[in-house]
Amino acid sequence: MTVHLKKLSVGSSSLDALKVRQSRLTIQGLPIIHPTRNWPRRSAELLDGGCLFWIIKGQICVRQPIADLIEVKRADGQPVCGIVLAPELIPVWPRRVRIFQGWRYLETENAPDDMPVSDEETPMPPELLSELRELGLL
Predict the structure, then answer these.
(1) Contact 126/94 with Cβ under 8 angstroms?
(2) DSSP string, the chain
(3) Residues 6+ apart with CB under 8 A from 125
(4) Which of the residues 29, 51, 55, 67 could staple to 84 if both were Cys, CB 3.0 to 4.6 A apart?
(5) What is the pTM of this model?
(6) How far from chain centre, in Å, is Cα 75?
(7) Looking at residue 102, what is its pLDDT?
(8) Residue-level pLDDT, tens digit, the chain, 138 residues
(9) Count of other CB atoms within 10 angstroms of residue 83
(10) What is the pLDDT of residue 11?
(11) Beta strand pairing status for 51-56 and 3-8?
């Protein structure tokens, strides 16, 4: 059974800022690897189609498929878990969450749905979408 992770995107002020930061790696041909101190105990479930749901400004706003979990070394030589991410960022319906440290599991049934993709429309800002949903207008 698939499970996901939710994680704060530290240093990202917006979805565009996260895209820019990750595109710097992909332009250089480098994989997107997010290091985390703890190794997920439910790694088999994560690798069975799991995603990392990024939290930006207190809202889950985008997901990114998890491709692999590998061991990487920190600058001080300590081994940590490297979450290898697929390059695509998939916007989801924004959802407010409480801030926490590290990462948390997110069960599939509790994960926000993907936002519809339309080439004809310009998407609304995530903050506005979240507020409209909280008011029951979307």
Answers:
(1) yes
(2) --EEEEEE-TT-SSHHHHHHHHHHHHHTT--EEEEESSPPTTHHHHTTT-EEEEEETTEEEEEEEEEEEEEEE-TTS-EEEEEEE-S--EEEEEEE----SSEEEEEGGGSPPBPP--SSSPPPPHHHHHHHHHTT--
(3) none
(4) 67
(5) 0.83
(6) 24
(7) 87
(8) 899 999 999 888 888 889 999 999 889 989 999 999 999 999 999 999 999 999 998 899 999 999 999 999 988 989 999 999 999 999 998 888 988 888 999 999 999 999 887 655 556 666 676 677 677 766
(9) 25
(10) 85
(11) parallel
Rounded CA separation 42/64 (Å): 18
Of 126, 54, 42, residue with least CA distance to 85? 54
Cβ distance 114 to 90 under 8 Å? yes
Taking residue 84's Cβ as centre, other Cβ atoms within 10 Å add up to 16
Residue carrying structure tokens 């749905």: 113
* Amino acid identity for residue 11 in this structure: G
- Residue 126's pLDDT is 65
Q: Are 85 and 34 in contact (CB under 8 A)?
A: yes
